[in-house]
Amino acid sequence: MITFTAPMWVGLLIGFIIGGAAEAWGISNPETLIRLAKWEDRLFLDCILIGFAIATPVIFGLYAAGVGFHWSPKPLYVIGVGLGGVLFGAGLAISGYFPGSIWMALGEGRRDAIYAVLGAILGAATWTIIYQTPAGYWLIHTLNFGSVVIGGEKVSTYVIQPFAGLTRIDLFLISLVYAAALFTIAYYMPRYKGGARSCLRANVEKRMTPLEVQKHMDTAEYLTDGGLPYGEKTIAKKVNEYYATEDNVTRWFMISVAGVVGLTVVLEMFLHQIFGESTTMSWLAGQLFLPDYKYSEIVFKGIGWEPFSDIGTLMGAFFASIFITRRFTSFRNIIPPSWAAKFGNNQAVRFLGSFGGAYLMLLGARMAGGCASGHILSGGIQMALSGWEFAFAVFAAMLLVAHFLYR
User: What sections of the protein cross the membrane (predicted)?
Assistant: First the structure.
């Protein structure tokens, strides 16, 4: 089996790629995830599914050919993962952030991300305290089925053992069916509420409805609100408004970003580990406040390149927001439109929402053992059952909370 382990600093480069790509994707802006929670703009979901459809057959195909990966599907402890997903989804709907996008938002110069970092560290610290209590033990160990994926289970760092009667070739064939199903959903699920086509389908058919064009221009407006100026013939104009003209050269930009993110996760699993973002918050909480707690000791012992990749994520988003998208806001007071429509432009209220939502989100992420990066993105590419349970819990809570919060 071909294996390799890269040094920790390589995480900076991995984080830089994903941070830059996701900033261009619009994930740094909390309004993007709030609109997802309101089920108004499903770009994030469409692109994540496309990323899975591209990356999953690649990783399982290479695995069948003898390439070894640092597999890390999260353990499936049903109650803790489900409850953690509910808290995570509620916090996401309130704040508009998940752990990785907080670092991206800092790179993009968003002021409320500062408060999100503080709330996230406190949320991670809360789980560190809960972990060694009877309640924490019960959440982790009740109905714990281990690190299970569709068709197999992890038995060591480099080995996903297929279930009885299956081979690695069978896992690859399963991944093809898995990818086809996810690609079909991504192709036919409209991006915008009231729209007719996903990004991919609009590109293939080379047409959009007037509502979709209007929605896209509205998206470009909030993404660039408070950002740096750009000219008519610049790359920023093409990236931010690429759907406005049918023959624009960046028509496939968002789809390409989905593939880049998915394949980068495959690369990093070969080099060192999965892509995860929330562990850094627990590491910070342990270093700052709770160094002698059991959970902190576990994190200190098992921490990988997450702090490096988070720094790289921030740097990549900063680079993209300055030189590509021109969305750098210079830490001005920019309130997400959906939040402002419901709660007004008061800075203190927005900062409370950013802090409190991030607190819930990180508490849920650490309870579940992973976040949108470790559970949903990395877990989905590995066909991890825990990742899918977490994703369903996140989306259910996110949609419910957003319905009552922003209606």
Answer: 6-22, 43-64, 76-100, 112-130, 171-189, 252-275, 311-328, 349-368, 388-406
